[in-house]
Amino acid sequence: MDYKSARRHMVESQVRPNDVTDLRIQQAMEVTPRELFVPMELRNQAYVEREIEYSPGRWLLRARDFSKLVALAAPRPDDLVLNAFCGSGYSTAILAQLAEMVVALEVDEKLAAQAQENLTTIGVSNAAVITGNPIEGAPKQGPFDLIFIGGAIEKRPDNLLAQLKDSGRLATILRKDGVSRAVIYKRSDDAFACTEKFDAATTAIMPGFEAEKAFVF
Fold first, then answer.
1. Which distant-in-sequence residues (6+ apart) come within 8 Å of 156 by Cβ?
2. C-beta neighbour count of 3 within 10 angstroms
3. Nearest-angstrom CA–CA distance, 51 and 120
């Protein structure tokens, strides 16, 4: 399979037409080998317009949803970024091309090792993979200009929001009432504003961010 052509087609058909106009994001996604971040048997599906389950319960977002979420996060060249649930490292590889430094946090030790190996393979030098609970964040490495959760959550990530710098932001997908919407939280002193931006396709919830079940009489 011609992966280089597949990446170019992905950008031209799934990214650029969906209002992702930041050329830095387009370029990052065109040069990053997405196929490297999924199991060998799924590599021929890496550029198909759908989510890919690369590990039990963990999904690589559609290129459309992922690119729009990165655009919403708007990484800046001098940003310190926390990539919570970095998985096999794809989101970290993209963010590292857009920010100064990325702390990649993963709860699964095997995935964290894969992420480090993948990032080393493609020469990413401004990202550090650490193992820990993304619900708790990485307070020793923060505070952060940007926190990125490349998947869906069902409750407000209060521990992570507390690790934002003033004027920092957190981008993720919030799922409620059966609908997934990309959101951006922005910090102002000790207040956090949440703005919904676009519909997303994912239904898989990041472990630990499931909503508490309501008690029914």
1. 194
2. 15
3. 25
CB burial string 134-165: b at 16+ within 10 A, e below: bbebbeebbbbbbbbbbbbbeeebeebbebbe
Per-residue pLDDT band for 131 (boundaries 50, 70, 90) equals very high
Helix axes 23-31 and 63-73, enclosed angle (nearest 10)? 140
CA distances 94 to 57, 75, 86, 101, Å, are: 22, 10, 11, 12
Structure tokens at 47: 């550029």
Nearest alpha-carbon partner for 209 in 163, 171, 173: 173
Backbone angles phi, psi at 114, to 5 degrees: -65, -45
* Residue from 60, 68, 124 nearest 92 by CA: 124
Residue 212 pLDDT level (bands cut at 50, 70, 90): confident
Query: How many Å apart are CA 96 and CA 90, to the nearest integer?
Result: 10
Domains and CATH numbers, the chain: 3-199 (3.40.50.150)
Nearest in space to 5 (alpha carbons), one of 40, 37, 35, 25: 35
**Pairing between β-strand 191-199 and β-strand 179-188 as defined by DSSP bridges:** antiparallel
Report pLDDT digits (tens) over 138-167: 999 999 999 999 999 999 999 999 999 999
Residue-wise pLDDT tens digits, 66-91 = 999 999 999 999 999 999 999 999 99
Helix (H) or strand (E) holding 173, with range, is strand 164-176
